[in-house]
Amino acid sequence: MADYVTVPDACVGILMGSASDWPVMEKASATLDTLGLIHECNVISAHRAPARLEAYCSTAPERGIKVLICAAGGAAHLAGVAAALTHLPVLGCPMKAWSTEGLDSLLSMAQMPKGIPVGTMAVGGAGATNAAIFAAEILALSDETVRQSVLDFRARQSAATFDLPGAPGHPARES
Ligand code: AIR
Asked: Which residue stretches of the chain have pLDDT < 70?
């Protein structure tokens, strides 16, 4: 039996270097849910479980996974190693770990050598949410249902800005 979680019909795989990344990465999972994308989540550290990472990445395309979202902190090699192990597009989510406010993770993911790209997002929750939206936008190129759910998501987001209260001392104008 495989020592990672698979979900039938999943098209996105979220990988994390540690369970300690989950409080941030659950934003990616929740956003994929909002967009209607079936996904699977696994903790597979590139450093602590390299053989499991290779097994996961080498079987992901044949199981229908089309995009990987990889989160790690510190010397964050997970996204880069996953990108090396599969031709699937890999989105990197740099986690704020124990030092440098996540700059270490950001540079580890962004500064890939040429030939093996990682689409690196912002540090932390914004990057986690954006990785899910970006994954949907990739899938939307070839899937009309996903395209529509991305458009709906954006329309709801635009509409929501009209509901924001004004800044203190600058109340929203009545329309
Ligand atoms: N990490 C785990 N294996 C390799 C790396 N880069 C990262 C995790 C987490 C941080 O190390 O992704 O962000 C701390 O992990 P832990 O398990 O010590 O809490």
From this structure: 1, 161-175
Can you tell me the distance from the alpha carbon of 118 to that of 69, in angstroms, rounded to the nearest whole number?
A: 10
* Phi then psi dihedrals of residue 119, to 5 deg: -80, 100
Residue of 18, 52, 93, 105 best suited for mutating to test ligand 1, as the one with most atoms within 8 Å of CB? 18
Ligand 1 center–CA 18 separation, angstroms: 5
Using an 8 Å Cβ cutoff, are 69 and 91 in contact?
Answer: yes
CA nearest ligand 1 atom 17, residue: 18
Identify the structural domains of the chain with CATH numbers, from first to last.
Answer: 12-152 (3.40.50.1970)
Query: Which among 129, 158, 126 has a CA at the least distance from the CA of 35?
Result: 129
pTM of the model: 0.93
